[in-house]
C-alpha cells in the first residue's frame, strides 16, 4: 500500500530494535539487564545503580490518566478521498481536490467503561476521525448514533456522573443498567430520543466496521464566496449496519472482551480494509427555520426523507497502528480542529465541546505541547509564537516570539483569507446575554416516537427487552415507574410491554417530570407534547433494510472431527473464501483431523477456545465418522444451539443431519431428510454441495434470522 504523508511523518519517530544493542536512555550500552548492582552477591542494592534506577523510574511513571469518557477504544490508519469537488459548498481543499488522498487516523470507542472494560457493553460507540489535510488537521469527533442525551454542555458532567459506576462502590462497570443513570434520565425528558437509540440494536454493533457514524451537531460548510450551508455529517459503512443479540453480547464480554478490537485488527491485517462513505445532508441558510425541529438541537436528526444524504467520498482503513500507546492512546481529538471551509454552529452542546476537548488533553497528556506528539501533529509545518511548556519538542530558532515584530521581519506572518488564512463565518448576532434554553428545543418526544415507529418488529422487541433488562436492574421502584411514564409518551404499547416485564403498571401521565430546569423556571420549561414529526417512518433508522448482499469478512465456523467428508470441507471452504468470508475449522482438539479420503485438515480452534458467539454462521460437513462423534459431543451441540438461539445461518450436508437432530432445534429440521429443506429459513440441509453453498451464502448475507426469536427459548 502506498505510504501517506502521515506515514512518512510518523516514520521519523519509529524505533526498531532489530540487530541493535540495548542501551540506557542516555545511549550507554547495557551489559547486564538481569541483576541490579549490589553490595556483595547477597547485599543490598546500591543507590548508584543508574541503570536500575532509570528502568524502574520509567516503569513507575508509564501510566497516564485514561479518558474521562471513551476510555476504551481502538484505532487504525487510513485515507479519505472525495469523489467530486464540493467547491459549491466548501473551500476545504480535502473536499474539493479529487486527486487528494488525505491521511486519517480513526479511533472507535465505547463511552462509559474503563480502558480495560468489554467492547460489548450496551453503549454508544465513539467514531472519531482525524484528517491530516494540507490545510491542517480536521477532526470529525462523532458517534455511531446521530443524537445525544442532552441539549446543553452544562449537563455533560451530570450525565457522565450518572452513567459511570456509582461512586460509593464503583459498580457496575461499563453498564448503564443501574439506578443513578436511570434516575437522571427519568428526570431529563430531553434524553428520550437518545434513549431510544441506546436501547436499540445500534448499541450492540456486530463490528466497528458495520456501524454508521454521525457528526451529530449541525456544522457549517463555507465556500470561497463566504456562503454558508448547514450540514450534518454521516459515515455509511459499505458492509451495511449490523448488530448482535444481547445474550450474545453478554457472552462475548466474558469470552473475548476484545472482540471488536480484534475484529478490526484482523480485518485490516488480512487486507479486508473497512470502508465508509462520507455523507452530507445540506440545508441552505434560508431553510434554517423550515423544520418542526431546531437544527441547533443535538437531540434531533434531519430525517433522510426530508434531506437526503449525498455520498461525497470514501474512507478506507488500511493500516494497524505500530504501537497502541503511542498512537491510539495518545491521539487527541478536538471538535474545534477545523480547517478553512468548515465552521461551527451555535448548538449549545457543540459550543461546550469546543472548550472541553483541549482542556481534557492538558491533564491527560500532561501539558500544552500534546499537539507535538507524533500522532497528533499535522502534516504541514507549524509556526507561531507559542513557546515552551512541559515536553516541548520543537526548537524555535527565532529571536522573536511575538507579533508584530520587526527583528524577525514580521514572521511568522498572518495569511489573508484568499491565501488560506482561517476566518470565522461572520454570523450575525443580535441578542441579550441570557442563561436559558430556546423554546424551539422543548419537544422531546416526536422523534423518539419516529425512531420507535421506524423499527422492524424484531428491532422493537429488542428495545422492549433492553428497557426491561435495564430497568429491571434498577432497585428503586419510583425510578422504574417514572421511566414507564416517559415511555408511555413515546408509545403506549412499548410502555405496556416493558411494564409487564417489570411487574408494574404504566402510570397515567400527561406530561413528563422535567427537573432539568433552573431554580426560577416558573413553569417556563414545560416540554411541548403536541409536535408531530413530519415523517411517520424513516427507513434509514431501521437496520432491517441495510446492505445484505455480501458475505465479505463474515466468520464461518466448520465443526469437524476425524472422518469428515473432506471434499465437502474443501469445496465449501473454497467457495466461501472466494466470496471474501473467513473460515475457521473447529474440532474437539487442536492439531489436525483426517478426512474420509485421508486429506489432513488443519484445525484452527478447539471447542475449548472457540464459541459460536464469535462466528456469523456454522457449517457441518458430512462424513459418517465425524458426524457420529459430533452428535455425541455436548460442546458441539451447545455450539449449534447457541448459533440457533442467536438467529444465525446453519448449514449441513444431508448426511450430517444426525448432528442437527441432536440439537434443541431438531423440530425445525426437514421431516424427510431427502427433501433437503428446513422449515426455518436460516437452516439449510442439502445433498448437493453446489446448492448448499448457494443457499448458505444467501443466508449468511442476510446476517440474522430474527424472526426465529419468537421461539428462541433454546437453552444455550
Ligand atoms: Fe465527547 N468528550 N463530549 N462527545 N467524545 C471526549 O475528550 C464532551 C460528545 C466523543 O477517541 C473527551 O479526548 C463534552 C458528543 C468521542 O479520543 C472529553 C460533551 C459526541 C470521544 C469529551 C461531549 C462526542 C469523546 C474525553 C458534551 C458525538 C473520544 C477524552 C458537551 C458527536 C475521542 C477526550 C477519542 C471524548 C467531552 C459530547 C464524541 C472529556 C463536554 C455529542 C468520539 O473532552
Please tell me about this protein's structure.
This protein is of the alpha/beta class and 716 residues long. It has 3 domains: 73-372, Catalase HpII,  Chain A, domain 1, CATH 2.40.180; 445-541, Up-down Bundle (Hemocyanin, N-terminal domain), CATH 1.20.1370; 555-711, Class I glutamine amidotransferase (GATase) domain (Rossmann fold, 3-Layer(aba) Sandwich), CATH 3.40.50.880. The chain contains 18 helices and 18 strands. The chain has helices spanning 5-11, 50-60, 156-163, 179-186, 192-198, 246-255, 259-269, 324-329, 348-364, 446-454, 457-472, 477-490, 492-502, 566-578, 624-630, 634-645, 657-661, 689-701, and strands at residues 73-82, 102-110, 125-133, 136-143, 213-214, 219-222, 228-237, 275-284, 310-319, 342-343, 555-559, 582-587, 591-594, 600-603, 605-606, 617-620, 649-653, 683-686. Strands 1, 2, 3, 4, 5, 6, 7, 8, 9 and 10 form a 10-stranded antiparallel sheet that branches. The chain has a 6-stranded parallel sheet with strand order 15-12-11-16-17-18, with helices on both faces. The chain has a two-stranded antiparallel ribbon with strand order 13-14. Strand 13 and strand 14 form a beta hairpin. Helix 3 runs antiparallel to helix 4 and helix 12 (477-490) packs antiparallel against helix 13. The longest helix has 17 residues, at 348-364. It is globular, with a radius of gyration of 29 Å. The chain starts with a helix and ends in a 15-residue tail after the last helix. The mean pLDDT is 96. The protein binds CIS-heme D hydroxychlorin gamma-spirolactone 17R, 18S. CIS-heme D hydroxychlorin gamma-spirolactone 17R, 18S binds next to strand 2, strand 3, strand 4 and helix 9. The site of CIS-heme D hydroxychlorin gamma-spirolactone 17R, 18S has 26 residues, from strand 2, strand 3, strand 4 and helix 9.
